[in-house]
Write a structure and sequence with these properties.
Length: about 230
């Protein structure tokens, strides 16, 4: 990744950003970083106003083809893809669009108050299945709005850790829920409680994305009950 930035989007449904908020990101003091397959990378902190309800836009340039190992296919948020180095462009002209997220896994925000977060872990329903495109009305978004409208819980954040096609017993859309619990939930800053919605794909899809189901998949209830 040769360059990356963050800015405030003019709206949730447009490829235009507020140029005055364009903020470059650095990795060990450098604008570029090499991320090995399956690894994660955190940029240096930047000063950026990320008030509740705003739409930050993250952009980055890849100097060679790359395919994400995990995609949020039901995030229902538009991602814009263009050729060339255009990370600082205020608007992407002629961009291809996809209504899901890839590569970026999260944005850490300092609240000025003790970190208190709720992690919403699950599959496509948590990811945003059947929510409105760019509507920010997934159920974790609604939960976040309710917490923000209550003075006692205003500083509580919600982490949306849903992966479409996710499973419990074997890998599906990305690593299985038990395999990714440490990375996506327990190691996240400020997590105090977790809401889990999993198992639907284990019941509905005996085989999924090339994975071979166990021989006794016809009796999955006890396997799900016993799953860590």
């Amino acid at each position: 990744m040769t360059s990356a930035y963050i800015a405030r989007a003019v709206s949730a449904s447009a490829s235009t950003t507020d140029a005055a908020t364009d903020t470059p990101l650095r990795f060990g003091g450098e604008p570029e970083v090499m991320i090995p397959p399956g690894a994660a990378c955190l940029s240096e902190p930047v000063k950026f106003d990320a008030a509740p309800g705003t739409n930050p836009a993250a952009g980055f340039h890849l100097d060679q083809p790359a395919y994400p190992g995990t995609g949020h296919a039901d995030a229902n948020q538009t991602m814009y893809v263009v050729h060339g180095v255009q990370v600082a462009a205020a608007q992407f002209h002629g961009a291809a669009t996809m209504d899901h997220w890839c590569w970026l896994t999260g944005v850490e925000v300092g609240t000025g108050a003790p970190n208190r977060c709720v992690a919403a872990s699950g599959d496509s329903i948590t990811d945003g299945w059947r929510s409105d495109i760019n509507g920010n009305d997934r159920w974790p978004d609604d939960l976040s709005s309710r917490l923000d409208n209550n003075e006692a819980t205003r500083s509580v954040c919600v982490l949306r850790e849903g992966i479409s096609g996710n499973r419990i017993l074997i890998d599906g859309g990305g690593p299985s829920a038990p395999a990714r619990s440490d990375r996506d939930v327990l190691s996240q800053p400020g997590v105090r409680c977790v809401i889990i919605l999993e198992g639907i794909n284990d019941l509905g899809n005996p085989a999924f994305e090339g994975h071979v189901a166990p021989a006794d998949i016809h009796f999955p209830a006890q396997q799900l009950i016993n799953a860590d």
